[in-house]
Amino acid sequence: MSTRAFLVAIVIGAAGAQTLAAHDAHGRSNAPAEARRLKNPLAKNVDLQAAYAKYAQLCASCHGQDGKARTPTAGKMTTRPTDLSNYLMESMRDGEIYWVIANGIDGKMPAFGKQLDEAQRWEMTLVVRDLRAQQRKVEKAQLGPYDWKLPPGFPFPNVPADNPMTAEKVELGRHLFYDKRLSRNQTQSCATCHKQEKAFADGRGRGLGSTGELHPRGPMSLINVAYAPVLTWGNPNMRKLESQALVPMFGEHPVELGMDGQEALLIRRLKAEPRYKKLFAAAFPGEADAYTIGNVTKAIASFERTLLAGDSPYDEYRRGDDPNAISESAKRGEALFFSEELECFHCHGGFTFTGSLDYLGKGMTEVEFHNTGLYNLKGKFSYPQPNVGVYEFTQQEDDIGKFKAPTLRNIALTAPYMHDGSIATLEDVIEHYKNGGRTIATGPNAGVGFDNPNKSEFIKSFQMTAAEKQDLLAFLRSLTDRSIAANAAWSDPWRPAPVAKTAAAVPPPKYVLKGEVVHVYPEDGAISLYHDEVPGFMAAMKPPYAMEFLVVDKQALTRLKPGMRITAGVRKRGGDYLLEQIRVSPPR
Questions:
Q1: The domain spanning residue 224 has which CATH number?
Q2: N or C, fewer C-beta in 10 Å, the chain?
Q3: What's the whole-number mean pLDDT along residues 497-503?
Q4: pTM of the prediction?
């Protein structure tokens, strides 16, 4: 029996009485770890006509011929069958799909291990892949030709019909985002309060405007803001990035960039900058005068929609790219985070780790605001004014103290915490939730948050050991995406290019690969290699078979030639292997 066939036998035999779900809202599957390592032996371009006939016979009554699970049978079921065209299917490995086809889902989906032989199960796996691929083409056509660089397993964002994405508009938006001409005294830009190295937050508990006015709330991270159906901490009516961009520029309470009544001045400044002549014309071709406030906000919003990040160590681990990407402590912390005892995931769920979520094709937009028991003042308002939460807009007393749950992605970079920055560290945040609310013993904000009448049902006290607290912290820190600060496409275009870091200043890669260049593909940003084994990560690839890798630093491609020996860091990202920190080695 081959190694692969032996592994299949282990996986098929693992079904037993296990209860599992094929896939949940966090992109996680409960199939055994062995299943994730199975590889589909069939070519991706295999004829699927016979497989689709089997799908129609066995699967379509529940999942539908298009995979969307909108069938009469599905409508009568207590648990809706998986939508096989949904973006979440991209997060499942072939082996997981194969496993579910063979073993089913206890009480929810029958097992087809006896009705389909091994080859047919793999063919059915390709059908599932094809159903998602067809839907992805539909979504891509709907959004237009813009090349979205989505993190693996992320869906397409929703984009307003009156502001379609273009590369030219994004580049103009990047310049405007970092341009201090957008503040009246020319001291601040959008980036002043949304710093790239801070995951586009600013490290302040409360924002500081261009005139020195201290704001009541802190700037939120803009990472993955394209998926946010509501913007800011507590305004349920702020729904579009284009509208939100007007607030810091022209708002008076508080003053941020201070441009209220200075629209004409702003336009004159932009027209006076030579660089903008080409940028505005390229972003808004055919317009007689592209220099408008509306176009300024459209461009800034377009740039902000590109701030997509989902390549943290936790993502590498959960995708199966590297089982050791996070520590054992962080793995235990993950279990705590998603447990019903702590209930963190109820407010910080999904791929964005926040409760408010929208994306292209989503049926119902999720909008959530929560009172976390941060304060409990005496009198009408249990939260200190003006930070009374959604109540400011609804005037409903049960909305007092309700704020949007921020994303927990890159949370280790965005201290201090809460809407007003009143909790300094992640350790203290955990203590706050462990106690079911914050107690302030003295002073103007004294009160017992645990007793706040509007407090969310998910904010309950729980028991936690010191070791468990460290595990949860390790998990939260594993959500930090290392690529954010280094992403040149998000950097300040007005600054000179930074001096390259010395080799000693760059953290060493986790896995090191040594190999020989076979081909260089500059147009694709890739090379193919014969390479040695990388212990604990990947097997060797010897002639006549070469393996293709994407190169993170495109400039490195210019100095690589076939026959060269190289040493490089290697990591996996979704279906791709990436090379970084490439060094040319002396010939053997």
A1: 1.10.760.10
A2: C
A3: 51
A4: 0.85
